[in-house]
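Input for the complex:
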Amino acid sequence: MAEQSHLTQHIESFVDSSRTSTQLAASLDAVASLVKTDALTIESLVREMGMYLTTTDNIVRARGILLLAEVLKCIESKHLESATIHSLIGFFTDRLADWKALRGALVGCLALLKRTSSAGVVTGSDAKVAAQSYLQNLQVQSLGQHDRKLCFELLDCMLERYPKAVAELGDDLIYGICEAIDAEKDPECLMLTFHIIESLVQLFPDPSGPLASFAGDIFEILGCYFPIHFTHPKGENVDVQRDDLSRALMSAFSSTPLFEPFVIPLLLEKMSSSLQSSKVDSLKYLSNCSSKYGGDRMTKHARAIWSSLKDAILSSLQEPVFLSSSELTDGLDFQDNEIVTEALSLLEQLIMQNNDLLLSLIVGDEDVNMIFNSTTSYEEYNDISLQGKQKLHAIGRLLYITAKTSIASCNIVFGSLFSRLMDLLGFSMRNTSGDSLLIDDYVPSERLHFGGLYLAIEMLSGFRNLIAGSENLILQSLSEHEICCGMLCSFSTSLVKAFGSILATSSNNGPLDSDIYIGVAGLQIMATFPGDDFPVTKYIFENILVTFMSIITSEFNKLTLWKLALKALVRIGSFIDRFHQSERASSYCHIIVDNLVSVVSLDDSIMPLLVKLEALSAIGTSGMNYMMKIARGLEEAIFSNLSDVYVHGNLKSVEIVVQLLECYSCKVLPWIHEKGGAEEVVMQFAFNIWSQIENCLDFSVHVLEKGLLNATMKAIKFAVSSCSVENQNIIIQKAYSVLASNTSFQLNESMFISSSIELEGLQLSPKAYNLSQRDEWILSLFASVVIAVYPQTHIPNIRAILHLFLTTLLKGVVPAAKALGSMINKLVQKSNGAEVSNDCTLEEALNMIFDTKIWFDDNGILKRCGGLGNSSGVGLTDLCLGVANNRLLQVHAISGLAWIGKGLLLQGHQKLRDVTMIFLDCITSGRIRGALPLMQHFNGFFSTMVPILQSLIVRSDSSFSRSLLYRAFVHIMSETPLVVILGDAKKLIPILLDCLSMLTEDIPDRDLLYGLLLVLSGILTDKNGQEAVTENAHIIINCLMTLIVYPHNTLVRETAIQCLVAMSELPHVRIYPMRTQVLRAISKGLDDSRRAVRQEAVRCRQAWASIASRSLRC
Amino acid sequence: MVSGLINANPILYEKKERRARSAPSVADEYAVEPIDQQEIFDHIRDIKDPEHPYSLEELKVITEDAIEVDDQHSYVRVTFTPTVEHCSMATIIGLCLRVKLMRSLPSRYKVDIKVAPGSHATEAAVNKQLNDKERVAAALENPNLVDMVDECLAPSFN
Amino acid sequence: MATLEGGFQLREVQRLEGHTDRVWGLAWNPATGNAGIPLVFASCSGDTTVRIWEQNLSSGLWDCKAVLEETHTRTVRSCAWSPSGKLLASASFDATTAVWENVGGDFECVSTLEGHENEVKSLSWNASGSLLATCGRDKSVWIWEVLPGNEFECVSVLQGHTQDVKMVQWHPTRDVLFSCSYDNNIKVWADEGDSDDWQCVQTLGEPNNGHTSTVWALSFNAKGDKMVTSSDDLTLKIWETDNIRMQSGDGTAPWSHVSTLSGYHDRTIFSVHWSREGIIASGAADDAIRFFVENNESSVDGPSYKLLLKEEKAHDMDINSVQWSPGEKRLLASASDDGTIKIWELVSRS
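Predicted:
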């Protein structure tokens, strides 16, 4: 009984129109859950609601019915007795007549008709009755948007769920639907209506059925929406987009062939519209419809469609762009605009439906023939008039598509047009075996006709793509008897000859881009027909390769020609690769790859090395095995030159080897690494470098200049880093042995077996304190290996190495410092769980680094290094602080420390704190400003730094040291990831602002200032940042206002203003007091000397002005 | 507000694509970029027509050539062309233009807003109103008008 | 006018900030500036306030003594002191006119005159302070009689202008009212035979060499036989009447055009004011203040006027009002869209 009273309450509140939407939702849920939980049966609910459903008070009745309907919606998956459903649907069906309570009725019917069989569904006959009542009672177009939408959903649902039942209504249904959807304008509703049409026509497929008579009327309604023109106000977020509508309308158009007599004429008419979009739509629709309607129905439109799509292409294609980007595309394909693309795909679609009529139209077309006849009248491309060029381009595209679509169409094109073209070009049939080419009597009659060759290429590439595209399926069945093949075989010799000669002629008198293009493209296409010896013979193929090769080796001063030839070769190579043409592959290898490799190694002065290398590395990219060959070739060259350097100190070889290494490590290695699976080669390379050093024991030191060293290090780094741990171990072992045996460094293993206490014993021979170039060379190479290896890789005799690096970094060997940092870094990673393979722990390493004592004589010359305990030497730390009055030593020490710090960063090891403190001391002592930029290494342990800095800043008395501390702070801040900063933004903002105002004083700081400002804006624009900001709103705004006029950096002004925009988002109570000030300040921005700043200022002014509606100026 | 679909294609003009400006190189940090025709145009091109959901640019109510600017003497003159001769909205459009420029230009600027000769029945009257700053000020204290203007300007601030 | 010969220069005495929107109008308190009473003036602004400024006798500079706010809800377009300097009236776009009484330094609003349909744009007290005229966008001019106890009674509503009325101004000595309007005309209103039966006795428009665009302001010379008007047509016009006939009590003595000062101004002239010693000051939308005096070289066709001095960029934006101060010094106050007021002194260059 309690429920009863509750129930009545809920019902009461639901029908009470004064309630808020949330209250309504609540009461609905309450009632629904009662029913869900079987606390209340739907029948008894209906009984309870009795008078609410029938009262004459319109509002109450409407609400009541709606409540019942909504409840049904909530329980659609709950099983109901068929009797219940029957009576319910009956009720709502009647209510459809009650327009004052319509909403509920619609929702109710919909909820019931949507039910799934498991939960009990409405019977067909009931559905039919509902549909009838719908058709009789509803004036859909007189309703509001929401109700209209419901109506359409209901209709849609009926057609989907109860096709048979509603189909029985026949003409009434069709007529009713027409009435309902006529002149609908709302996008969401339209999506539904279009779909309704689609489902409707499915009901009456019979061409003589009821739909036939209505097709015209329906389309009258439908047609006026084409082309979709969407004018929904921007900003209003509409989930229906123009494309959705257009797609929906399209499938409605194509839903039944019965529309064909109305659709096609409309589309053809709209194609002549001036609006690009409607042209494109018409084309899209045409191909969609023709595919749905089928070839037969389309035949009668063929003529009209052909002429209008031809016009479309003719009118929207520009003249062909030759080498605009010196980019040789496959075949003669140019960036077409949307119209052209659609038109061509329509054409393809139509030909696909093998519309012979269409083909005959194309072949017999007057424009086509006009072009053909005119081809002979022009020699060079530039002789042709602009319209001529455009026509040429357009017809070319058309023929390309026609040839490419099917064997049948291809045959027709070749049979009629291609053969005719050959005659025009003066080619004669010749036997298919190309060997006659050797003793060829054919010499191009006079200068060849550009237009002719152009069209030939279009058709050929169409043909080529036809077979290449179809995964050899066609190729198998392809035989001499196919006209296109016959043609190709007969003329391939002449064609190749012709293309070749064009390039030849073009090379004597200054080459015309258009000629080069057409020559290269022609040859490329001829060379990229699938099949080893058919339809294009191996002989011809090789001949093409030779032609290109000779261009590569002798025409390198004609840049365009050379580049295009190279690109063509690469394309050919990768084509072979893709189609696994074994024979052609071998020809390619020995004609192109082998030759190039040999060219590189032989030292001729004709072809510059860089050019050779460019060609070589490019060719390599066309296939893995080619690249392998090339890699080996390069290696040989590298090593032979290196030994020249080592043994004879040949300076010339230095330049050469540097270039070779560059190419190897920048072009070859990355490509191989990306493709994967060729580690052996790489590993070998690295290994050989070392063995070679080993083999020439005393190489002449005087030529070891930086360029070569860097190049070698770069190569080694890349090689090693792309090896597996196993191989890395092999390499580093090798490297170590070389380091140990071939240098004056004494890395006596025995010294380091036991714990580090005994380090005392370590010494470097005095000689080593002034490093020989050779030692530095080897050391640097070794360092680059160490940097490149994985943490898991075993570094032999690690303590000695650590020590060695420590010592040598003090001598200013930067690679050593980096390597030390990287070792520490790897140890950190290991100590965080990565599998251990070195017996040295991070702690040990750090102790060694910081406790090792160093001795130097009075001139600060490093004397001896090593040993622990309280012996008279000093530690790295002291050096950083400049205990040895040796500037150089101090700088080396600090940079070393920086790299170690960087190494520790990764995990923010606590040792960092010490490292930082040392730095801060360096800074505050003001003795070494050079350390400042290094601060950025320390952003990683930001949270440690900040408190220290803050306290220091507070304590620091001299303004000088304070400014240094600020700068240190800035360096850290600007390198720290935003998330970290957001962490304690509250604390940071005040000091950040101090920094900002401090930096505004010095022009040289302007970039620093900008960096810091970016941090601030980062905080402002982040949700979490904003709370922190709100507290300091006042000071931040003041600071930003001063930056609006900062004269020395536009970006600063721009960013400051953007920040102000962000500030305007804050709670108004906070910022309103500042409003007038900000507006006054920003007005200066409006008059800034820079446009970018002014634009931001406008936005900012608006943002702040609109905080209060009043006062639009000031 | 007009919403939904218009089937008859209204006279729409392709938008002029926004010309990218070559950013001055870092070298001349202090270089001056004077306010020019295009900049003014960019300020007003996106203003929405009070009646249609189109921008004044799309409706060719304003074009770049219809703007005279002299940055040295801080003077701008915008001539606009109402869509129809008796366009009741001409004054509103003019008001929008004036307000947008008022909010976008340095205060030193003098702005004249004019209807293109022969483009409006009551040309003189409209011009006189648009350039009477007392009337403009009064208009801008009228909440309804301000809302209307703000709605039209909204797109032009992004 | 010998004193006016020789060069002059304008000295900026002070720049006053305080208003947060454009300053529309200014009014010097006529009862100040002599007998050791410090000069006082009022300013009104788009920020809906009126501010009272008083000179500090020791420093010679002005401070804001009071801000009259929370009475008007929209722009205050203009303000005017009663001849006694006791009352200050303010006209606002909120369609009301407020009258403030100065009670020992602080001002209280003693009455609000409602009647205009919309924006009130200008007001003026007659010489005796017994009448107050107001005008506005509703094209009408209202005349209020001041009754004891700060009661105001509308005695007449004058229709005649076809567009909004920009300014009203009483003749300095006689109860004749002048109004100028957006309809390009200046109208003269007089009370035919003391029966509160006010009539338009003359319309000065294009036919009588009048202005060809909005007339924004007008001002009389000390004697009251000459009047200067300023307009959107970029000219100043001088008008005169037969003083004898006027003295003889015939209020309807007609006014006629004397000369037109054209080619001096580049943009709308919002304000013009004629000093006691005959110097005409103009303030315009070209941010400049100009001074004109009568040209002594007697010319055939009546008196001509010459430019005495031009102050370029007197303000950063339009100048809405220029007003000569009472007292012996040649002090001028100017109000501008840039939100500031400036006090100037015109000094001879010698």
